[in-house]
Design a protein that fits this description.
mainly beta; 17-stranded antiparallel sheet; globular; 1 helix; Porin
Length: 343
């Protein structure tokens, strides 16, 4: 599959995301093992963002093992609004460029009853450079230790996958729980990590995330999908390691990164309809919130979302859709394209 996806993001600008993917079984006669996927994606925007990602997701030994790998490099030009609901509502921005690289690996083993369990590891480097000429005069500040960091992490993932088709589920459910333990080594130097720096004390934080999805076929070609996402972060986490609202399709219609905090919840419903000639359509809506602690969630800070968009089947064999989502949030709207369903 190949798809040059145009994009217009309030966070990083207008541009294109070329996506290439190949879905395949290791053995064509094997009807039990789920298909594996390899892919590559790029990013080019008028705001200056550039990125390249290579990824693979492999099922082996009759689906007894699932192995995932990712390499990502590049830089993003976007705005930092501070943390918390008040900062997100105020909309005061600090324009920054964040560059670096990420290496990720994960190996899961099936332990019975559709459950998978296994370790995961991250190695990353991040450099942040502010652009005051594009920032508001009363912009939020980033603590100096977060400007130039080396990050290492290990974690555990527990997943129960009861979907009959992971590319376009029509029934079943998915439960996905991840825990990541991060170790951060900051270097204090010139902004953006240039020049001779002074090594600061290392710090740690932990991030936990739970996703629960349920799917039901209302009638042939019509699916009702439900998603619940929970996120919690503990310790000395930099802003990019906290719960970022709208970054993983939790709720569309929001600028990714405008609402950030240590805790987050989001829940949404989506109704998906297949149409003739490989076309389809989906309508969706939901609500969510970010907060510094569980006790700070309240009705006044809820962030609603509603939207719809057409679909086009790129792969008839596996029912992989190209989707366009037009969404409206509390005081913003977005449009985005992607390969595969939002959840």
């Amino acid at each position: 599959m190949a798809a040059p996806l145009p994009m217009s993001s309030p966070a990083i600008g207008t541009g294109i995301i070329p996506v290439f993917g190949y879905i395949f079984p290791f053995n064509k006669n094997d009807k039990v093992t789920p298909p594996s996927v390899v892919g590559a994606a790029g990013l080019i925007t008028n705001g200056g963002s550039r990125a390249l990602a290579l990824a693979g997701n492999f099922f082996v030994k009759g689906g007894a093992y699932e192995i995932t790998g990712l390499v990502l490099t590049g830089h993003l030009d976007y705005n930092f609004y501070g943390t918390g609901n008040e900062a997100g509502n105020a909309g005061r921005k600090l324009a920054i460029q964040q560059g670096g690289r990420v290496f990720f690996g994960e190996a899961l083993r099936r332990i019975g009853h559709k459950f998978y369990l296994g370790p995961r590891a991250w190695v990353a480097h991040s450099e942040i450079t502010p652009n005051l000429s594009k920032s508001d005069s009363d912009h939020p500040d980033i603590p100096l230790p977060f400007f130039n960091t080396d990050v290492k992490a290990w974690g555990i993932r527990l997943q129960r996958d009861g979907r009959t088709n992971r590319f376009f589920p029509t029934d079943g459910s998915l439960l996905d729980l991840t825990s990541n333990f991060f170790y951060v080594s900051p270097t204090i130097g010139l902004a953006g990590g240039t020049g001779t720096g002074i090594q600061e004390s290392n710090f740690q934080f932990q991030a936990y995330r739970l996703d629960a999805n349920k799917y039901a076929e209302v009638r042939k070609g019509q699916v009702l999908a439900y998603n619940l996402s929970l996120c919690g972060v503990f310790g000395e986490a930099p802003f990019y390691g906290q719960c970022i609202f709208g970054a993983n399709n939790e709720l569309r219609g929001y600028t990714a990164g405008q609402y950030i905090d240590r805790f987050m919840f989001a829940t949404q419903l989506e109704y998906r309809i297949d149409l003739p000639k490989r076309f389809g359509v989906a309508v969706f809506g939901g609500v969510g919130e970010v907060a510094p602690s569980v006790g700070h969630f309240n009705y006044d800070n809820l962030l609603p979302s509603i939207g719809a968009g057409p679909r086009f089947i790129l792969s008839k064999k596996y029912h992989v859709n190209l989707r366009l989502d037009l969404a409206k949030g509390k005081n913003s709207q977005t449009w985005s394209m992607g390969v595969g369903e939002a959840f």
